[in-house]
Design brief:
Elements (H helix, E strand, L loop, with lengths): L11 E7 L3 H12 L6 E7 L6 H9 L8 E5 L5 H10 L5 E4 L5 E2 L3 H11 L5 E9 L5 E5 L6 H5 L10 E4 H7 L11 H10 L4 E12 L14 H17 L5 H4 L2 H18 L3 H14 L3 H29 L1
Parallel strand pairs: 1-2, 1-4, 2-3, 6-9
Antiparallel strand pairs: 4-8, 5-9, 6-7, 6-8
């Protein structure tokens, strides 16, 4: 198995695509400036934000004081994947991390990554765990990632937290030093699948990042992020692999499982975004592909809840009429 090398003092590149995230951007930047490892560059690729706040925040850090630590670019792009690709192309680091503008790192994150890459010289991506924070930056949960499995990754049964997943430059260069700009969204999923076909990834226990949960769907520089867009992009990545003649048979056999698991994941995601109707539809799609008692019970509960809600409205309407 291939072993990678690291310089004595590797440079770590944090790439941050940004669009109208000025409310949280300063917290993100300060978390990187507070790292306990000195050789960190922060690349901020802003998609020509229009919120007014972003420009003020960027102006604050676009000074000679930060010129060797923060590199700021602002230009329109063709969406989330294009913005990420622009940021990656500017990275000079031996290690890369994609950190959204509304997330932030814990002070030991960079040194944690370097320590684990030295400990596991054959690993291309090492990912940890994350705190989930609300819109006021209060910790509301802990997300503990699962052990890596390519099959589970492809089937969206394992979702490595992108904001806690550090990538070796050497590995990314071997599979294409870019984000896939042809995808509308979810470029991290495509990147993990591309890397993991060639090199191992590893989960290491330890919280290194804060991931921000929003009550309402956010926008990228193109449009609102929706479950439908996520499903379309992930399904496209799956289809490419399943339809490629070079793909091993054992992976092609995962097609049905992958689609069913994708729809199950979409159901949970839609619920989280308050899209109950879509959540039930995705759950039914998953059940049709791979029926399980667990899914059937969830469908029954949702339909029962929906009917109870409609009956309550009908009773209220009758009482009001009387």
């Amino acid at each position: 198995m291939k072993k990678f090398t690291l310089p004595k003092k590797p440079l770590l590149s944090i790439v941050t695509p940004s669009f109208n995230s000025g409310k949280y951007l300063e917290e993100c930047i300060k978390s990187i400036l507070s790292q306990d490892y000195p050789r960190v560059e922060h690349i901020i690729q802003d998609g020509a934000s229009t919120d007014g706040i972003t420009k003020k925040v960027l102006r604050k850090f676009k000074t000679s004081k930060y010129k060797h630590r923060i590199h700021i670019f602002s230009e329109s792009d063709n969406g989330q994947s294009d913005g990420l690709n622009k940021a990656i192309q500017k990275a000079k680091g031996d290690i890369l991390l994609v950190l959204n503008a509304d997330d932030c790192l814990l002070p030991h994150a960079a040194s944690w990554a370097i320590e684990n890459f030295r400990k596991y010289p054959n690993i291309a991506v090492v990912y940890g765990d994350v705190y989930t924070i609300d819109e006021r930056s209060a910790i509301i949960d802990i997300f503990k990632a699962h052990e890596f499995s390519f099959e589970k990754l492809l089937a969206v049964e394992l979702v490595p937290p992108a904001q806690a997943a550090f990538i070796r430059r050497q590995a990314l260069e071997k599979v294409g030093f870019n984000a896939d700009v042809t995808l509308d969204t979810c470029p991290d999923f495509e990147m993990w699948v591309r890397i993991a076909q060639k090199f191992p990834m590893k989960h290491v226990v330890g919280i290194v990042t804060k991931y921000r949960h929003h009550d309402k769907p956010q926008h990228d520089s193109g449009q609102r992020r929706t479950t439908q867009r996520f499903v379309k992009a992930k399904r496209e990545v799956m289809d490419r692999l399943f339809n490629d003649p070079k793909t091993p048979h054992y992976i092609k056999r995962l097609r049905r499982r992958a689609y069913a698991s994708l729809y199950l994941w979409a159901s949970y995601t839609a619920y989280d975004l308050g899209q109950t109707k879509q959540a039930v539809l995705y759950l039914v799609k998953s059940f049709i592909l791979m029926p399980t008692l667990h899914k059937l019970w969830k469908i029954f509960k949702e339909l029962r809840g929906f009917l109870r809600y409609r009956l309550t409205l009908l009773i209220k309407s009758i009482k009001h009429a009387l």
